[in-house]
Design a protein that fits this description.
- The protein is an alpha+beta fold.
- 34% of the residues lie in helices and 23% in strands.
- The longest helix has 23 residues.
- The chain has 16 helices and 22 strands.
- The relative contact order is 0.19.
């Protein structure tokens, strides 16, 4: 008699939870799925806390509404799947700006993470050097070529476009530098277009044109009313329900310390050295950051472990302030170029951006993101020092003395944001090929492999689950 499948999902962030949900929905009856999360709570960087009487995010803030094909993003689909479709909320104010010398400059339209497709619209922010972007009779990139974003943009449009436009936007998303981040990973549509177009401006225009048209007035971003922890809780509740064909067990404070091949598939060593638990499973979804993944893979596939473990991460701190009657612009937030030499690299004006976070007494909630890759020493300051520094920088960046905060919170995320170097996607593909070639029923999922953003991580988890199910179905046949 065929025994029920046993599948382990290592990592209880949103990628691991999405993998478990897909497995629950599609695995045959009797399948046993266990999610192992080393911390004491699920959700990873999706974490909402109470602040100034409001539910305020301490990690990821929102997600894209659409996927690259124009349909619902994987995050929206997951929210609908767990009954939160009518709880999605959209920014009331979407305009963002760049902060430069006490002034705010609106972000120009028609760019891809700051790379302009119309140099005239970007002229008020950065002086381009259009003569550099000459047609040399060949595509910008070869079919499998990847370069740093900054390298390509500097070569084609000059330094100022990188430093005043592209670098701040990449810094806001990745806490990284344009000169070290992979084009293919961070701006995949532009990388695809650059393999056929002969100029950078033409490549940006082609990439923008390839996007499915959005309905007039359609929102770009969404969050969940009450915070993204509600999404985590709703997924947890569905996974824990006893009405599915598959059985799901969620284990927190459960560290998977070792992974080894076994006769059945895999043996996991879970828990402390003394009294460790040995668990045998048929397949594993590995949904943890690069370095813990590499440690687990080292005894399984040394080459794959080296490729995975090479990824570096940036650490950041999120400093949230409740400020009475501040003098702030009516924008959703602003980015700060590294040339301004501030610790603060991005600011979100929560009370302006989100209607549900507005208070009738005028108390505003503002969140600053502090730290870039390579600047981790700045984060060694105490919480009070970070709060004081952010308040002082807000005064300088806005040109108006801001009131003292009546409440503050500092959330530190060590090793939070992957820093994808050129060639990242090729290295991940090679690691996955190596694992598949050996017939191992193990799939990689999460931001360490496929990119950041909630929809990307959800889709990565779902794809890993599909890979596992296809493999196990092949074994059963």
């Amino acid at each position: 008699m065929q025994q029920p499948w046993r599948i382990a999902v290592v990592g209880g962030g949103i990628a691991g939870l999405a993998a478990a949900m897909r497995l629950r929905d599609r695995a045959p009856a009797g399948t046993r799925i266990t999610v192992y999360e080393q911390s004491d709570e699920l959700g990873g960087k999706l974490r909402t806390g109470e602040f100034a009487g409001l539910p305020v995010e301490r990690g990821a803030e929102a997600f894209l509404m659409r996927d690259p094909a124009g349909g619902d993003s994987a995050a929206v689909a997951l929210a609908r799947r767990v009954g939160l479709g009518d709880q999605l909320r959209h920014p009331a104010v979407g305009q963002a700006a760049l902060a430069r010398g006490g002034q705010f400059v609106p972000l120009p339209a028609g760019t891809l993470i700051g790379v302009p497709g119309d140099l005239a619209t970007a002229a008020g922010v950065a002086r381009a050097e259009p003569e550099r972007d000459a047609d040399q009779g060949r595509p910008l990139l070869q079919p499998d070529e990847d370069v740093a974003v900054g390298e390509l943009v500097r070569r084609r449009l000059g330094d100022e476009v990188v430093e005043q436009l592209v670098d701040p936007m990449l810094g806001g998303v990745y806490a990284g530098r344009a000169d070290t981040l992979s084009l293919a990973t961070t701006i995949p549509g532009l990388a695809t277009a650059a393999r056929t177009e002969h100029t950078l401006v033409a490549a940006v225009r082609a990439a923008l044109a390839a996007r499915p048209p959005a309905a007039a007035g359609a929102p770009v971003f969404a969050t969940v009313d009450g915070g993204l922890s509600r999404l985590v809780a709703a997924v947890r509740d569905v996974l824990s329900a006893a009405d599915g064909a598959a059985e799901v067990r969620l284990r927190t404070s459960a560290v998977v310390r070792e992974l080894a091949a076994s006769a059945a598939g895999w043996r996991l060593t879970v828990g402390p050295t003394r009294g460790a638990e040995r668990v045998d499973v048929d397949a594993v979804v590995l949904a943890v950051p690069a370095r813990p993944a590499a440690r687990l893979l080292a005894a399984v596939d040394a080459a794959a472990a080296v490729r995975v473990g090479a990824l570096e991460y940036a650490s950041i701190a999120l400093v949230t302030l409740a400020v009475p009657q501040p003098q702030l612009p009516e924008i959703s937030g602003f980015l700060v170029p590294a040339t301004e030499r501030t610790m603060t690299k991005a600011v979100t004006l929560f009370s302006t951006k989100w209607t549900q976070l507005r208070r009738s007494d005028g108390l505003a909630v503002v969140r600053a993101s502090v730290g870039r890759h390579g600047d981790e020493r700045l984060l060694q300051r105490s919480d009070d020092e970070l709060v004081d520094a952010v308040r002082a920088e807000l005064t300088w960046l806005t040109g108006v003395r801001q009131p003292a905060a009546v409440q503050s919170h500092v959330q530190r995320w060590g090793g939070a944001l992957p820093q994808y170097p050129p060639g990242h996607l090729s290295r991940v593909a090679a690691a996955r090929r190596s694992l598949r070639a050996a017939g191992r029923r193990l799939a990689l999922a999460g931001a360490a492999y496929d990119g950041i953003g909630i929809p990307v991580c959800v889709r990565s988890g779902e794809n890993a689950a599909d890979e596992i199910l296809t493999n196990l179905e092949g074994v059963r046949r």
